[in-house]
Amino acid sequence: MTVCAILGGQWGDEGKGKIVDFVAEHADVTARFSGGNNAGHTVMNPQGTFKLHLVPAGIFWPEGIGVVGNGVVVNPGALLEEIDALKVRGIDLAGRLLVSDRSHLVMPYHAKLDELAEKARGDLAIGTTGKGIGPAYTDKAARTGIRAADLLNLEALYPRLEAVLTHHNAIIEKIYQDTPLDIDEIFESCKEWAAKLGPYIGPVEHIVYDAAEAGKMVIIEGAQGMMLDLDHGTYPYVTSSHPTIGGACTGLGLLPSQIDVVLGVFKAYSTRVGSGPFLTEIFDETGDKIRHLGVDPDAREFGATTGRPRRVGWFDSVVARYSTRVNGYTSLVLTRLDVLDQFDTIKICDSYELDGKLVKDFPGNAALLERCKPIYEDFPGWDGVTAGVTKMEDLPAGARAYIERLEELVGRPIDIISTGPYRHETIEVRKIF
Question: For a surface tag, which of 118, 216, 235, 254 has the fewest beta carbons within 10 Å of its beta carbon?
């Protein structure tokens, strides 16, 4: 068996949830390693349509277990809502969902600070989801965070919570001139979370490590995308964690040598949510057309977590090559190919121009990046439909040529192609396992 990491190759929203659900049929463990409920995975399978934010997308296969790793920041209330919603729809989580006792909690004051800070930035706003993820990671780095394990010892939690809240309330009152939060209200919530989440919390890192050492199948589920990585993304317009392969190791306690397969998931075009540079962005009616295409409304270009319309652009192979270098993808997954069925001409960015010079590598300097201009090649659209196709030979010739061109530009084979939002609307070009 194998350990397979499934990572977002662009700015997130690449359809990783569908791919995790597709490949996890024989997985013993599906483990989430970073981010929080600022990420959303839409999964559409025979059991229905689901929007997940913390529970791993492999949970729909009854033989496997889902793990929320130490690198994830967990909003207890949001997780409980998600658990309850799955239970109502017949998804049994008893003994199948485990939350690391080392994972940090997103507390009510984190969401408050997130909202106030973003408002204060004005025109320089980052475009956060406002769910408190950044402040939760800030507390983690400052060593003032509250971890899931703390819910299991409420007596010791209260004085720690009191000290943290005194600090944050001072910021809320004196910096932002807003109303402070009440510690007793928050502690009452902690007691409720402890009672309901307690059975799910424990030391889970050894479960993932031992499964890998025993040769079982482990799926590592990424959230967000490479270009939102705190170090390697378009800083400062990034998330607060590491959705790259390095984050998979630190966020689950795995060794790099234990990971056999790294799948980079890319849309057949590009999208991003929030502020920040996006060189191939489409500003005319073509972008709006792409945003609204899709057989099912749940598969269109609006955020699964926020509902915000996503910015839309053409495929950027400079980004894809950079993403591949940082993550070491063994092969690629191409999603949303069916969205491009209705276009006579498709553009592919193969390089940038910077001050009259050709640029093939992604600039790490934000100031340089803002001066770059995309260089496109026009690619002819195809006659025929890719939507719902499950065999490579059934794709229109033009679509196959487009796939081959992307493989050439990125330098990796495309082993899985998604032709629709549902689990079965998938082409497995080559066996991953």
Answer: 235
